[in-house]
Amino acid sequence: MLLINCFNLTNPSMIILVHCGISLLALLYVFTRFYKLPTASHQHHNSSLLDNLSIIIPARNEEHNITRLLQSIHAQEKQPKEIIVVDDASLDNTGQISKQLGAEVLTVKKPDKAWVGKSYACYQGAKKASGTFYLFIDADTWFDMGAFKKLPSFLNTDTKIASVCPYHHVPQLYEQFSAFFNIMMVLGLNTFEPLFKSRKKQQKKLFGQCLIIHKEAYWSIDGHAAVKDKILENVFMSKLLSAKKYKLSNWGGQSFINMRMFPHSFKELCFGWIKAFTSGASQTSKTTLFNLIVYLSVCMFTAISMFFLYLQDSTTIYALCGLYTLVATYTYYLLKQLGSYKTITAIAFPIPLFFFMIIFGFSPLIKKCFTVTWKGRHV
Questions:
Q1: Which site from 251, 252, 318, 353 is most exposed, i.e. has the minimal number of CB atoms within 10 Å?
Q2: How much is the pLDDT for 64?
Q3: Residue 118 to residues 163, 287, 368, Cα–Cα distance (Å)
Q4: Are strands 167-168 and 133-137 parallel, antiparallel or unpaired?
Q5: Among 34, 334, 32, which Cα is nearest to 196's?
């Protein structure tokens, strides 16, 4: 009652102004928590790292992608110790193309049902590898020129494990709908650094598309065999490695490694994100989950308030428009670090936001009603 009397909350305009004030403070809080995405820096060649680096590429029906990836590796100034393409029962020419481009091809048979996704291929590739460091990369990624000069910056004497979220190329209009999924994925794995460093270390979760790991750390948990029944294998592997006291680090992939996740269709985009989020959401730490909810709540309430703009007085309209501009600006700030998203995607953020909420909210129901497949396998 005191709050209602103090702020006259029976007045709709006053309610909107209080909402704007609270949302502004909440947005400022989120900004301090998700401040900067670390990226690799250009360094001199570390011969010892590249001379002992085994690149392992699990590939299933990737004949349209593998050429671009292998050519981007061969274009680097210095080459790794070996490149192993694990042909995961492909029905196309993935293995043949990889051989022609100089990779060592390891063909694996269909594993038993206990193995899910690409884990079996990764595990077989690691058993074949002779390097000290393993670099697992998805076949639909590709490196920037000079990327290998930045590899040493991911590792140091304390850190033997690093994962990189590739820079997401989204040239088609429908691919812009990945915006909030992309934001939630990167923020949820605690990749952004806070504005003020805390003594309490954030719990890192590793990305699946690009993982660098010392063989000693990998085999200490029996590698991908330890997470063979998990769809997001690296996320679950993080917990096992942390229990072994290994330090994990996450990085943004801009100017290092790229990906295009859903080049074929809008349907592919929907089912791809359903696969990722129904399994990975439960692994987000409580603190990070709270921060994500704060950000989404600010975006959601700001977007809904704009529908009632015509009912407000001039002061309230200015306040709402100002808040909307700040939310769109921060969303743009996040998206530009994650991928080639258009400016209009951030300006019209309610559209990809509501798409995210619908897909995420109904994903358990969709998984029950439809058969979700990825790379030719049920997930």
A1: 318
A2: 92
A3: 17, 30, 23
A4: unpaired
A5: 32
Name the residue type at position 44.
H
Name beta bridge partners: 107: 87
Residue-level length of the chain:
379
Q: For the chain, where are the alpha helices, taking DSSP H only? A: 2-7, 12-33, 47-51, 66-74, 94-100, 119-128, 179-188, 215-220, 233-243, 266-280, 286-306, 314-338, 343-347, 350-369
- If DSSP codes are grouped into helix, strand and coil, which group holds residue 226? helix
Burial 101-114 (b: 16+ CB within 10 A, else e): bebbbbebeebeee
Task: Find all residues with CB under 8 Å of 23, minimum gap 6, and list them.
Answer: 298, 301, 302, 323, 327
In 3D space, the residue among 277, 308, 300, 307 whose CA is nearest the CA of residue 352 turns out to be 300
CA distance 133 to 330: 37
197 band by pLDDT with thresholds 50, 70 and 90:
confident
**84: region left, alpha or beta (phi > 0 left; psi from -120 to 50 alpha):** beta
CA dist 12 and 305 (Å) reads: 11
Largest CA distance in the chain: 77
Residue with tokens 């049902």: 113
Is residue 292 a contact partner of residue 187, using CB atoms and an 8 Å limit? yes
Does the structure show a pLDDT above 80 at 375?
Answer: no
- Convert the pLDDT of each residue in 118-175 to its tens digit: 999 999 999 999 999 999 999 999 999 999 999 888 887 677 899 999 999 999 999 9
- Calculate the CA 294 to chain-centre distance: 20
Name the one residue in this structure whose structure tokens are 């929907």: 270
